[in-house]
TrEMBL record:
CDD domains reported for this sequence: TM_PBP1_transp_TpRbsC_like (cd06580)
Top-rank lineage group of the source organism: Bacteria
GO molecular function, one term: transmembrane transporter activity
Organism placement in taxonomy: Bacteria, Thermotogati, Deinococcota, Deinococci, Deinococcales
Keyword Transmembrane helix: yes
Subcellular location: Cell membrane
Membrane topology: Multi-pass membrane protein
Name of the protein this chain belongs to: Inner-membrane translocator
Length: 297
């Protein structure tokens, strides 16, 4: 029984890895006051960039592929930063556009990679009778580092002040625009890393729509965990377990497979509703979603 529980936890954590990485990126964005609904597109572009580099030859450096995914995510998120910080466009509209651009571009450019072999995948690490991906370990470490950085460092305090009261931060000499742009780029890089996990480790292939809504769940997960990186670990584990349960029960139950596929998305609606009832939205940064214009109140 213990081995079954441990296996379920390990598998759930593995499935929850892209959710955790993408959620951490969204937390970084939103702590600076910028909403980014384009996580799904950033993950798709990251997954494609990683696979494109890794599938070139058997000697391709997988860690260069990971770097390419993070760079692609950051580069695409620069569009969102320019629109929302420089042009002060509506953050929600810009994020939705980014999601469409990212998934559309990845689907179009990735057609030539469909069905191609991945000569080498990122190798898993063996822990006793179980295996775990280096991406999963990295995600857990990043969650701890981000939590520490946000709460115990000057840079983290600066970023949080921009998200809470950008006018006060500006008065104290903080470059609000630059801080927000860097936060968006960092969040995009983490979303790209989540995509790299899908194409280099979890699925070890490229296919259109391989993110399958994970980016949207990650956006909702930010609210569910109250914008706290360490809580994101538990949240990702919870949704990862739902996906794991979906795979285990399909074919072993009289319930239609569509019900299992819809489970994570149904739970997103439920947890967001519960968060609203509990008033958890009050934990959001005070200036979240609002463009900053110097001199305006």
């Amino acid at each position: 029984m213990d081995s079954i529980v441990i296996e379920a936890l390990v598998r759930a954590l593995s499935v929850g890895t892209p959710l955790l990485l993408a959620c951490l990126g969204a937390i970084l964005n939103e702590r600076a006051g910028v909403v980014n609904l384009g996580v799904e597109g950033l993950m798709a572009v990251g997954a494609l960039a990683a696979f494109a580099v890794a599938s070139k030859s058997p000697d391709a450096n997988l860690w260069v592929a990971v770097g390419a995914a993070m760079l692609a995510g950051a580069a695409l998120s620069l569009l969102h930063a320019f629109a929302t910080v420089t042009l002060r466009a509506n953050q929600f509209v810009s994020g939705l556009a980014l999601a469409l651009i990212g998934t559309g571009a990845a689907g179009l450019l990735g057609k030539k990679f469909e069905g191609l072999p991945l000569f080498n995948k990122v190798p898993d690490w063996t822990l006793g009778s179980f295996t775990i991906s280096p991406f999963t370990v990295a995600a857990l470490i990043l969650a701890g580092l981000l939590a520490f950085w946000l709460t115990a460092t000057r840079g983290g305090l600066t970023l949080r002040s921009v998200g809470e009261n950008p006018a006060a931060a500006d008065v104290l000499g903080v470059n609000v625009g630059l801080t927000r742009v860097l936060a968006v780029l960092g969040g995009g890089a983490l979303a790209g890393l989540a995509g790299a996990f899908l194409s280099l480790s979890y699925r070890s292939s490229w296919a259109d729509n391989m993110t399958n809504g994970l980016g949207w769940i990650a956006v909702a997960l930010v609210i569910f965990v109250g914008w706290r990186p360490l809580r994101a670990i538990a949240g990702a584990l919870f949704f990862g377990f739902l996906y794991y349960l979906q795979f285990r029960l399909q074919g072993n139950s009289n319930v239609p497979t569509e019900v299992f596929s819809a489970m994570p998305f149904i739970l997103v609606l439920v947890v967001l509703a519960l968060a609203g009832v509990r008033g958890q939205a009050g934990d959001a940064p005070a200036a979240l979603g609002r463009a900053y214009v110097r001199g305006e109140r």
